[in-house]
Amino acid sequence: MAKKNIFRFASVILLILVCVSFRPVEAGIFTSQNGKVKFVSEAPLELIKAESEKLISVIDVAKRSFAFSIIVESFEGFNSPLQKEHFRENYMETNKYKTTTFKGKIIEEIDLSKEGTYNIRAKGTLDLHGVQKEKIIKGKLIVKSGSIEMDAKMDVPLEEHNIKVPKVVNQKISQIISVEIKATLLPKK
Amino acid sequence: MNFFLRTLVVLLFSFQFLNSQSFKNFSSLGGKKDLGVTSVAQNKEGVLWLGTKEGLIRFDGKTSLLLKTEDGLSANEISSLFIDSKNVLWVGHRNGKISLVKKNKADSFLLNPKMPENAVISFFEDKNANIFIGTNGGGLAIYNGTGLEKFSTENGLADDIVYTMAWDEKKYLWIGTDAGINEMDIYGNKTKIAHISTKDGLPDNIVRCIKSDGKGNLIIAMQDSGLCYYDNANQKFVKNPFLSSWNLGAITDVVTKKDGSLLISSENKGMLFISNHKLKLFDAANGLPSNNISKLFIDKEENLWVGTIRGISLQFAQRHTVMNMQMGLPSDKITSVLVDQDETVWASSEKGLGEMMLNETGNYEIKILLKDLAKEGAQVSCMLRPDRNRMFIGTYGKGIAVVETETGSSKMLTTKNGLANDNISFMCLDGDGNTWVSTIGGGISVIDNKTGSIKNYTEDDGLGSNYVYQVFCDSKKRIWAAVDGGCLELFDPDNKSGGKFTSLKEKLKIQSKTIYSIAEDSNGNIWCVTSDEGVIKYNPSTELKTGATGIKIYNTKNGLRDATPPIICSSGNKILLVHNKGIDVIEEGHQPEITYFDLSENDLEPNLNAMYTDLNGYSWFGTNNGVIKFRAFNIPSDSITPAAYLTNLKVQYVNFNMDSANEFSWKQNNMIFEFDATWLKAPDKIKFRYMLAGLEKDWQQITVSHIATYNNIPPGEYSFKVEACNEEGNWGKASEYKFFIATPIWFKWWFWVLVIVGLVVGIYSLVKYRLKALQKQNLILEQKVEERTAEIVEQTKVIEEKNKSLEQLSLVASKTDNVVLIMDANGKIEFINQSFIKLNGITLEELVKERGETIFEVSNHPQIRELVAEAVRDKKSVNYESLNILKSGYKVWESSTLTPTFNEKGELRKMIIIDTDVTERKRQEEIIVQKNRDITDSIQYAQKIQKAILPDLDQVKKDIPHSFILYLIKDIVSGDFYWYARKGDFSIIACVDCTGHGVPGAFMSMIGYNILNQVVNEKNITEPARILTELNKGVIESLNKKNPQNAAKDGMDAAICKVNVQTHQVEYSAAMRPLWIVKKSAGGEYELNEIKADKVPIGTINDDGSYHNFTNHSLIAEADHSFYTFTDGYADQFGGDKGKKLTTGRFKEAVMKIHTEPAEIQRQKLLDLHFQWKGEQEQVDDILVVGFKA
After folding, report:
1. Which of A174, B274, B649, B1082 could share a disulfide with A41, CB 3.0–4.6 Å?
2. Nearest to B397 by CA among B417, B376, B383, B427
3. In this structure, what CATH number is given to the domain that contains residue B651?
4. What is the extent of the structural domain holding B864?
5. Which domains does chain A have, with CATH numbers?
6. How confident is the model at residue B542 (pLDDT cuts 50, 70, 90)?
7. Each residue of B124-155: pLDDT tens digit?
8. Any chain A CB within 8 A of the CB of B205?
9. Domain-embedded: residue B1003
10. Residue B224 and residue A121: Cβ atoms within 8 Å?
């Protein structure tokens, strides 16, 4: 499943690159290799935070499409190594589902080639834990000095992606995880 | 002791008051737990289809069946469902594929051109049955029955994600996308697509759901801006009418119910219920299995189905709701209930008074008051709001607590204040706003609403006793009292003494002394619960009109489950009786009159008179298990009934397709009908009734069975009807199957008519035929009679003639000299004539005595039987002779002619024997026979002599080795003879044929023989010619032929041969007889030469008296020469096929064939030829043939 995700992701990249070769750089592909993803689980008995700075992001300005991908094991934080271990092995099952991706399209018809701050909604497919779910997330894009700053938030209900939390710990792990994505994308050279 | 003021514990609980809604969650579907439901559809039969990630579930409220790709689905992950107008289920899959389910069978739906490979997320069907298919990113495709018409951003769509489609009831199909709304003119020009977005006032471009509100407006549900309406009339968007702002996130679905309530589901914040301008939130905290809702669906029963990520939840309108400690009340033992105008519910218990107030979200918040009161042992028994500001709380033992609701201040009203008693049982307001208080032990108090003064009524005022359970004010402002010991009492205010109570026990003939409760229905009937008889209904108005004081009693015998229910109250024209088992509702004029409601499996334990009817018509009851809110009135969804449908038909125990036919033969008369009904709300409570119209006149007994069996249905037209009823006993629409069982031909009237006609015709024809036959027979008989008569006449004639003949014959028979006997067919002698009698000297009787009665015994002929048999067989007369020795000893020869006579049939009738005396002839015959014998003897002797004188053939053979003599005598003696002599080396043979044969011939031969002897042996003449000459002379002289008188033609033909076998000399001379010589010709072939004889027979004298000199021939014989001489007898023999002579020619032929054979062989062959030729013919002449070789 993870391999498939990577493959898909790679094919998207390839497609974008192909498109890029025919377009001028200005109206082209913006990428980032080190975007930040932060998630928070706020439950009555515990607050869990983790983050990763290995988010791979791509935005196609002309098509208004995007793709994000992250290796799940890149998340650090947690309240204990054991918790991290549980996160990886029991909940996210990173041995099966290595990568999480979110790709889709920006709904609003904005011209990202122009500088400005854009509050957008992005509709995409979140492929997490082997389950794909269409989501519309809100975000903000700041186009400035040839780069695109992206800031988006989404709530991920665990049950939507078949991530089962045992009843024993349901006071310690929230059913809905808040996720924040931040990245600064630069034109692809 | 303001115990009730001491503490006001405010306990705030928000609990799920479900507003008369109940949730039933189905988390286990198709054998899988917590299977997320993405889509819901319901088919014509009421069965639900649920789309999940793992397949399609068929759910009938009881059982769920999971269908997957193995069962025909194109894929397992389902994103949308839709039932079209033909009851076909369209299944949209996440991979863009579509499956169709028809009659529970799934099949992939292959389209050409293909659907885009995006999830199918929405459907719509227009009035022409075109199916619109919305996808998640592939635009819109319209299926027109044959192919697809595609729409995307390339040809007009605002966006390729088609979330939703709805018809605006006017002209356009509204399509919700991520980029606003598209309006498509689907019955006009589809390519004309208008676009509505935020620029046009749409609050949010991401339009997740568009639905019609049933009032001509469209509800638009958006991603982030909640709901808005599109006001068609004013052509503008009206934002969120119910909520000031929207904070429930993305809306996934919107549905409207028939009662106008609205339900909105969110992506992860539960479901909002808006009804009568009131909001209510439902989420995982108050009943739903999850906050993550993908679909809402209102089924045909007006139940709500909520598809969540954890299965599906059914929300249905229930008549009752229970509020208890679980919801936050201080106790379950509720002694009284009251509902304010603002819908605040007051529930009293031994642990305090619960004040339940509805909050913004439609939930109740509870305050508990008067806890101390409870502690001090005062039990609240009843409550009353005499006016907006105050509340009366009646207690057992502590009188009434009067509470100022705004300030919260209160005071007690007790006996000290003039109250009749401190044990308050009930309170009610009269028409003037005064409070009537019933007490246990003090009678009734009336508190004036204005002054506050109290007036009491006791036994002295007509009350049967001071123990009053309830005081009641009816719609006509009459005051009734339920009295223990006084029965039902009515207050008469016009009594001069200031009002009096009168018991109606006698008047209404009520047996019971005690009444517990009173109620009044909207028809003006007064109902009360008695201690002994059950529930009584009494109508005072009817009594006034008709004068008849009738009561109607309801108890367990005529339908009530409990004859003394603790609570009785009314709801419109219905009377509610609340007891342990539930509620019995009596409704006059309703079928059935009593309806039963089960509220709980456990006993309800309602408390006496703890009831209240609120302004909305709901009935509230206080029980030991909480507060019960009950809806006795009907809401539109109550009239929805289950529709029964036929699932299967078995004819003759074999499944039969009901759609195929409905006409059956008379033999197909065993039927099993299987039926079902879907009632999702309470599938276990479904009951059925059915009937076979045409056979049965009424419905069969109500049953839970799903099968109806009918056997041996007689021919006719039938209609099988089945109806289903729900848990409230409401019957739904009947399902019907009409069919026809053909009448066997012998049941049809025309068959019998035909049979009868046939019989009649048949009988008639038969009779006629018989008549005709009889007539014909008669004719024939008549004819026969005529013929017979003619025959008889003829026969009579014949008989007469016969008689005549007989007479004549009789005459002949009797008179003739011949003897006549007549016998019957058996030979029995019937008649003898006179001649017989005369001849034999015996009569018939004597004859019979002596000899016998048959001819066989009487006849003298030894073979008489054979003779008779011959005569009968040959049917002709037979002659015979017999010797009759008379009595006298005289012998009489009789010649008898036996003649048989026959009848027409050829049968022997009689035999007639006519005897003729032939004695004389016989005698002559004997003489002749004797003479003949003598002659023959002498001739035979002559033969001996002749034979004796013939030459010895052995000698001839010795002298001439190659020689033969063939000699056949015709008669005993012969006229032909052969003579032989040996003279020196010569042999002389004579072959002589004398004239005649037999005796005369023999005499001639004697003469000839003697002469030859003389000539040759005595005179030694050896020359053949000279021998002949001498023979001739001798014959003439012997016969004295010189005498002309004796010139008889007697003589002989002769041939003489003289043979020397050593020298081979042969001399020949002949009279009339030739000599044949067979020898080789010059050419080497054998030929027959003939030396002719002299044509002068021996015995001929010349005219001049001289004698003929015969010619002598001589020759030298060769070895191959064969000589033949013969008499004419051989050639003259008659015979052959035609009875002709052999002739010389044949004779020559024979000689030519045999001449080379040895002599004996030649002789034998000539003999054979003779006999062969002769056959049966008689030998005509003597035969003599001599053959030799010299």
Report:
1. A174
2. B376
3. 2.60.40.10
4. 810-917
5. 2-187 (2.40.128.110)
6. confident
7. 999 999 999 999 999 999 999 888 899 999 88
8. yes
9. yes
10. yes
Pick from B704, B682, B528: nearest CA to B597: B682
Give me the CATH number covering residue B1097. Answer: 3.60.40.10
pLDDT, tens only, A5-42: 777 777 777 766 655 554 443 568 999 999 999 999 99
Of B166-180, B361-375, B858-872, the poorest mean pLDDT is in: B361-375
Residue B664 lies in a domain: yes
Total number of domains constituting chain B: 3
Same domain, B903 and B955: no
User: What mean pLDDT is predicted for residues B88-110?
Assistant: 89
| Residue where a domain terminates, one of B750, B767, B799 | B750
Residues B895 and B960 in one domain: no
CB pair distance less than 8 Å for B310 and A159: yes
**Do residues B963 and B895 both lie within one domain?**
no
Q: How far is A87 from chain B (nearest CA, A)?
A: 22
Q: Taking Cα atoms as reference points, which of A90, A84, A98, A104 lies closest to residue A181?
A: A104
Interface of A with B in 43-62 (CB under 8 A): none
Query: In this predicted model, what pLDDT tens digit does every residue of B716-736 receive, in sequence order?
Result: 999 999 999 988 888 999 999
What pTM, to 2 d.p., does this model score?
A: 0.62
CA distance B388 to B385: 7
Cα B1189 to Cα B1123: distance, rounded to the nearest angstrom = 6
Please tell me whether the interface predicted TM-score (ipTM) of this complex is above 0.85.
no
- In terms of domains, do B714 and B831 share one? no
Say how far apart CA B445 and CA B426 lie, in whole Å.
11
Is residue A114 very low, low, confident or very high in pLDDT (cuts 50, 70, 90)?
A: confident
Final residue of a structural domain among B703, B727, B750: B750
Regarding whether B980 and B1050 lie in a shared domain, the answer is yes
Does B117 touch chain A if contact means CB atoms closer than 8 Å? no
CATH number where B913 lies: 3.30.450.20
Of B375, B367, B416, B373, give the one whose Cα is nearest residue B394. B373
Q: B1131 Cβ partners below 8 Å, 6+ apart?
A: B1141, B1142, B1143, B1144, B1146, B1147
> Do B136 and A176 make contact, defined as CB atoms within 8 angstroms?
no
Which chain A residue shows the shortest CA-CA distance from B53?
A131
pLDDT of residue B1048: 60
Q: What's the CA gap between B192 and B176, in Å, rounded?
A: 16
CB contact under 8 A, A107 and B205: yes
